[in-house]
Amino acid sequence: MRIEGDWLHHVGTQALCRALEQGGFQALLVGGCVRNALIGAPVNDIDIATDATPQTVSEIAESADFKVVPTGIDHGTVTVIAQGAVHEVTTFRQDVETNGRHAIVRFSTSVIEDAERRDFTMNALYARPNGEVVDPLGGLPDLLARRVRFVGDADARITEDYLRILRFFRFFAWYGDPAHGVDAIGLAACAAHSAKIETLSRERVGAELRKLLSAPDPSLAIATMAQSGVLAAALPGADAKALPILVHFGAQSWIVRLAVLGGAVDTLRLSRAEMAQVSMIRDELGSTRSPQELGYRHGVEAAEAVILCRAAIFEAEPPKNWKADVDKGAASVFPVAAVDLIAEYQGKALGDQLRSLEQSWIDSGFTLTKEALLG
User: How many whole angstroms separate alpha carbon 100 and alpha carbon 158?
Assistant: First the structure.
């Protein structure tokens, strides 16, 4: 079997692989680019595995006038920019020691040893520069059947890096076949080690949840996480029941999906803007503000998020004509300004009167005129 794609035939990619091979080394495309090319998914990153050491890769690339950046040289990776194409070139590796978060590796000359240290069989696929697939562990059938399985012993792979528990569900959300369900052996191993998620940095946990919730439909993966105890370990207090309804309503934003899950979102080290968005949605879930008022106060996108989250949590359809009401509210401009009241009100009294008039205007469906409000 062969992979295809314009990215594979890019002049820079082919030139880099050719330079490595002419130096007497292997140059194999690996991981996500091979996996995605085989299933027709977009290829965003180009990774190359080789038996050349990082120093040798750097020397070969520089002699070919390519730009070299030592992005992860201690772990065997250098970034090579060839004719505008960015490549992560990593020396074949074998784990020497792991502790659930970090690994000590040694460089290898064996593609089999390199494949055996990878997480899932669908990620242990390689391809030669001509597109010919190299499958040292027999992972191709798993990929074609959309089976997310750990390489070798699931418990061993997880204890090497406990983040693989969350990656297991993330990859199922993106690449698994819901009709076949989650791999039972992998699921059992994830459940058995779920308590170890607390040893991971919250930044790493948050990053994985972001990627998982960005999948077209993460509902089954999240539900399975909840049933196995993994969700409680990753996001204490989360409730998965409303997520499939929210997805059904068409909400695609990972941050909106996170908001409807609830739980200890504040522990995930989100950015200030992301946390503000989650907090706004969760605060408004308990309010009685109409779609028009939500549109006026928060804008179209945020108002739609609140309305869909409300509907999902209460298992009800959104209000009739809600989109038009949100648009009307978002386009409305309060006709009274402070300067209109300053002759009669100052300080706190001025602010209170402005807010009172604004609420009256909102309650009227944005119909009261300036004259009616001031009369």
Answer: 7
CA atoms in the 13 A half-sphere facing the CB of 144: 6
Residue 5 CB-density burial (10 A; 0-12 exposed, 13-18 middle, 19+ buried): middle
Gyration radius of the chain over CA positions = 27
Does pLDDT of 100 surpass 60?
A: no
Name the architecture of domain 1-144: 2-Layer Sandwich (3.30)
Tokens representing 309 are 């989250």
Fold observed for domain 236-332: Methane Monooxygenase Hydroxylase; Chain G, domain 1 (1.20.58)
Are 154 and 125 contacting, i.e. CB atoms less than 8 angstroms apart? no
With bands split at pLDDT 50, 70 and 90, how would you rate the model's confidence at 99?
low
Domain ranges for the chain:
1-144, 162-234, 236-332, 334-374
C-alpha span between 322 and 320 (Å, rounded): 5
What does the pLDDT read at residue 105?
A: 73
Residue that is written with structure tokens 């040289």 in the block: 73
Q: What is the pLDDT of residue 375?
A: 78
CATH of the domain spanning 162-234? 1.10.110
Cα gap 278→245, rounded to integer Å: 18
pTM to 2 decimal places: 0.91
d(CA 49, CA 146): 24
Contact at 8 Å (CB) between 194 and 236?
no
Q: State the pLDDT at residue 84.
A: 95
Q: Is residue 353 classed as helix, strand or coil in its secondary structure?
A: helix
